[in-house]
């Protein structure tokens, strides 16, 4: 196996506007960049890490540096699964290995997976704010095929937010993401409101690990009678399927959670086998980090990959009808090959 040269760095670009969810606001989004090179061929990857798990790009970099020697000796994607735990560090390296393989073989990652990528209806985020501000955001973005409405703010205004966005974008498909910010009482009260207003699903209404509490379990089962419930914070890796069984109808697969495209493909197949729908998500991340998820989304029921569009000068684009266009393999998925090396 060829030896590899590993290059890692952290970048911290400013966002176009503040990104606000129930856990806080941010104006910048740092991410980790990874490159693996074996002479003429290079592969790229990137990740931000899961912030509610305490991951940071600096922490991901340290995690990778701790196993640098093993990585540079050369490894496969299966080796990587045994080397690092699920998370952003493994995801970035997994992406780089896929991209490197594409450079070596001359076959894009899409072709290796048997895909001819098509534009996808990726959600665009309506950030948490006052009902009036969220209504204005929804009016401005109503031309998009799918809106993801962030909730989990002041409890007395949640129903107003739900109705305000629905009234401002009545003809646009909409989903809700409460980011684990609701109580059981709120879920009982607001799920019927969301269903009445035409939202298609409700993502992670209760806290992570709420499934261990009997009242939360009962509330999730009752809410699912009017609106499909998606597990995000409560669903990290393939090991979580049994714990959430019977409580959710949809699982959110993020590469930064499960450790990369290699693991995500296995999770997708298991979700289908269990009769669950698939929602492919991403962190606020650059195009290189989102590109593998775009391929995974080709077979998904929902996708939320708007991360690159929160940064300036990212090589991601939309079609005229607002779909997320396929990502050029020159950005990720085709690898890089230098002549005369």
Automatic annotation (TrEMBL):
Keywords carried by this UniProt record: Isomerase, Magnesium, Metal-binding
**InterPro entries named in the record:** DgoD-like (IPR034593), Dipeptide_epimerase (IPR034603), Enolase-like_C_sf (IPR036849), Enolase-like_N (IPR029017), Enolase_C-like (IPR029065), Mandelate_racemase_C (IPR013342), Mandelate_racemase_N_dom (IPR013341)
In this protein, which residues make up the domain named Mandelate racemase/muconate lactonizing enzyme C-terminal?
131-230
A Pfam family this chain is assigned to: MR_MLE_C
Entry's SMART domains? MR_MLE (SM00922)
EC number of the protein = 5.1.1.-
Q: What is this protein called?
A: Dipeptide epimerase
Protein species of origin = Algimonas ampicilliniresistens
